[in-house]
Design brief:
Length: 309
């Protein structure tokens, strides 16, 4: 019975996170449109897109792996979210957090992107291999400073458990990792730009340049799965960063805690949006070199700072 209840709570948590992630996606589209001088689609457009795609049938086939790509991608986003506690101490939004869940989360972040690469590799679009090469290369590049930031945080709090890390940041805003280990936060936030794929690191989708295979060839429910994962995975990453670096969401009133979570994740996401609206896109080699240069150096300094503090 306990397992059934936890699963039901997890379903509620997933629905809330997916709705919030899709809402953020709609808000970001509207912001970019305003920056470009356009009116833009309505905020609820991502929900309409998912309803539309799930109502259509798939008319093409490139093999089983091509259709398993979206499934692996969604599994990566789902696994990432399920091991992150959304609200500290909440039964409903605690998910399946456990000892060492930081490592599980990092694994699932890789899993979804690798699965999508396998699916895209079987597609019929001639630019799919180019998108795969760019995506995996950039993923490997931004994971280096992100991993260094995680190592620094683990050394600082002597734990790889997200709940323990959030608990250590309670009591005062000055206890947040943002103030106790700013170098790790800087390295991680730069990595977040690559994870979110906004400019100047939007080299995989490369708007106005090359469309990769899956968004062009996928249709029907498979495209709907990708769009749903875009909302869930975005929310999972933002909640992870909130927990590790910005004190998490903790309050006796669950509605207030949810409001705190939404405010914090909104401003974390706006960092990527602000940078994306302000800078042009890098070339692929510029993006890879950037991640392996400055944020990696900052991540190493963060480890040295904590180790010898």
């Amino acid at each position: 019975m306990d397992i059934i209840i936890r699963i039901l709570y997890a379903v509620i948590s997933i629905l809330v996170a997916t709705v919030w992630g899709l809402t953020l996606t709609g808000i970001v589209r509207k912001i970019y449109a305003r920056v470009h001088g356009r009116f833009g689609p309505p905020v609820w457009q991502p929900f309409l897109d998912i309803i539309q795609t799930h109502s259509r049938r798939v008319a093409i086939s490139h093999g089983y792996m091509f259709f398993l790509g979206p499934v692996f991608r969604f599994a990566g986003g789902l696994g990432t979210y399920l091991f992150i506690p959304v609200i500290l101490g909440s039964t409903v939004f605690g998910n399946f957090s456990m000892g060492g869940d930081v490592l599980l989360v990092m694994y699932f972040i890789f899993f979804g992107q690798l699965g999508m690469a396998l699916g895209a590799g079987e597609g019929g679009h001639p630019y799919s291999p180019m998108g795969i090469a760019r995506g995996l290369s950039q993923m490997s590049a931004f994971e280096v400073p992100f991993s260094l930031a995680i190592i620094s945080v683990a050394i600082q709090y002597h734990s790889l458990n997200i709940t323990t890390i959030v608990q250590a940041q309670q009591g005062s805003i000055l206890n947040w990792t943002l103030f106790t280990n700013p170098l790790a936060v800087i390295a991680a936030m730069i990595s977040l730009l690559g994870m979110n794929g906004h400019a100047p690191f939007s080299i995989v989708m490369a708007p106005q340049e090359i469309p990769i295979g899956p968004p062009i060839e996928m249709n029907g429910s498979f495209l709907g799965i990708l769009q749903t994962n875009r909302g869930l995975f975005a929310a999972a990453k933002l909640i992870l960063f909130m927990n590790l670096f910005f004190g998490g969401a903790a309050h006796p009133n669950i509605l207030v805690a949810l409001l705190i979570m939404m405010i914090k994740t909104f401003f974390i996401y706006m960092f990527s949006v602000f940078v994306g609206a302000s800078f042009p896109r890098f070339r692929p080699e510029q993006s890879f070199r950037f991640f392996l240069k400055w944020p990696t150096a900052i991540g190493i300094l963060a480890i040295l700072y904590i180790a010898y503090l």
